[in-house]
Amino acid sequence: RFRRPTGRRAVLPVLALGALFVHPVTTAGQDGPDLWRTHVEFGFTGASGNTSFSILTASASLARLHQEIYELDVSGRLRWGRSDGRTIANDVQGTIKFDWHPKDVFSPFVFATASRDQIRNVDARLLAGGGAKWTFLQPSEETKMSISLAAVIDHENYDLAPGSTAEEVINVGRWSWRAKFDHEFGEGATLQHVTFWMPRVSDFGDYIVDVSNSLSSPLLSNLSLVITHSYIHEEIPPPGAFRDDQRLGVVLRVSL
Question: Which of 71, 179, 191, 205 has the fewest CB atoms within 10 Å, measured from its CB?
């Protein structure tokens, strides 16, 4: 039987864009110090003895900031964990996003996200689309709120158990509604909240809710402590997976 490309093959092209990370480090001085923003995050939790487990998280992001005209953002994330000899986390994700005139009240954007999550039986997933953002509240440079609407193509390739009669590949169109709040406190601490609601175009009963929160506080000039929380609900989850996933993490962020 013909086998569709695995999640690893689908994700690697997006993550390969991480090669761009090397370029700004060597040329930022030529382009000006404010044109690039690079973050690297690491987190690890482990225990041994009566209970043994380890969870590693790592992510990196690179943004080309020319916000009077555009913003290009490339990011990648991986999470891996084991507990008492079994895998409890194994997922990877890569995203590329382009915003046109992001400082304007209304600004268009396009994006693509490729991911793989073995625990949720997702061999490959591709979300790609475009839309517009409305920044309806920005009382200061430190605080802003925005909402956006996008049309999205959702392609999923499942890793089915032997004998499963579920569909292996799903292709649907979705709407993506996003609400976002950013606030910067004194001395560099930041708070961010993002909520996505992504109903299927032909059936609003098939929807995804994705909520993420982060609070960061600087420790040194280029080192911050970040607390993250995420909640994902898929009304129709992948075969063999639960509807809800919730994660809480503490990571160190290095700004380059």
Answer: 205
At CA 114, angle to CA 153 and CA 163, rounded to 5?
Answer: 85
Residue 145, strand partner residues: 137, 181
CA distance 60 to 77: 7
**Exposed (0-12), middle (13-18) or buried (19+): which is 72, by Cβ within 10 Å?**
middle
**Which pair of tokens denotes residue 240?**
């063999």
The residues that bridge with 28 in the sheet, in sequence order, are none
* Distances, alpha carbon 42 to alpha carbons 60, 253, 255, in Å: 9, 7, 12
SS3 2: coil
Q: Could you give the dihedral angle defined by the CA atoms of residues 145, 62, 248 and 129, in that order, rounded to the nearest 10 degrees?
A: 60
HEC readout, 29-93 = HHHCCCCEEEEEEEEEEEECCCCCEEEEEEEEEEEEEECCCEEEEEEEEEEEEEECCEEEEEEEE
CA dist list (Å): 253 to 84, 130, 213: 29, 29, 15
pLDDT in tens, 155-195: 999 999 888 889 999 999 999 999 999 999 977 899 999 99
Type of residue numbered 194 = V
- Exposed/middle/buried for residue 14 (C-beta within 10 Å: 0-12, 13-18, 19+): buried
∠ Cα 81 97 108 (to 5°): 145
Distance of CA 112 to the CA centre of its chain: 10
- Please name which of 169, 195, 114, 140 lies closest in space to residue 1, comparing C-alpha atoms: 169
Q: How crowded is the C-beta side of 26, counted as CA atoms within 13 Å?
A: 5
